[in-house]
Design brief:
This protein has eleven helices and no strands. It has about 160 residues and is mostly helical. The chain folds into two domains: about 5-50, no CATH class; about 75-160, no CATH class. Helix 5 packs antiparallel against helix 6. The protein binds zinc ion (ZN).
């Protein structure tokens, strides 16, 4: 780099300079062969890029990327498992699960922490009841009122 202003030229070509900086470059260009040459090169390069065909991914790469997009992340799977937690009568258990999810979400890389929290007996109990919870979810019972009814079914059955 032979001229301190040369580093402004990319931004100048991209029209990304503020008014003051742009005028400074424009005033400088006629007297600096290095910057004029660099500017011409940048413009030629941009023109080549603009006319170049967009790179196309190979079918294999495309398939791999699409598969990766469809694959649920660990946290999505965990969230899917824990979503019906409102059905569990023990509020403390629900609070514990939610807290552990929050902790896990604040540190997305730490899957080990989430696995460790499943060793908590309360969480294990939840995990053991997940089949039941999943069944309710399959029925489409996501409305909080419906869930309330399901949660208190035993009380309703006890009524004459
Ligand atoms: Zn210059």
């Amino acid at each position: 780099m032979s001229c301190p202003l040369e580093q402004e030229l990319t931004a100048y070509v991209d029209d990304a300079l503020d008014e003051v900086a742009r005028r400074k470059v424009e005033a400088h260009l006629p007297g600096c062969a290095a910057c004029s040459g660099t500017l011409a090169l940048l413009r030629r390069t941009n023109a080549l890029w603009a006319n170049a065909p967009a790179p196309r991914p190979s079918p294999a790469l495309r398939a791999r990327v699409l598969a990766e997009i469809d694959r649920p992340t660990f946290l999505q799977r965990l969230r899917g498992l824990l979503r019906p937690v409102v059905l569990v009568p023990a509020g403390a258990l629900a609070a514990g699960v939610i807290a552990s999810v929050v902790v896990t979400r604040s540190d997305p890389g730490d899957e080990a922490l989430a696995l460790e929290s499943l060793q908590d007996p309360a969480q294990l109990e939840l995990a053991l009841n997940l089949d039941e919870l999943d069944d309710l979810e399959v029925l489409g019972l996501e409305n909080p009122d419906d869930l309330e009814v399901i949660t208190h079914l035993d009380e309703l059955e006890a009524m004459p």
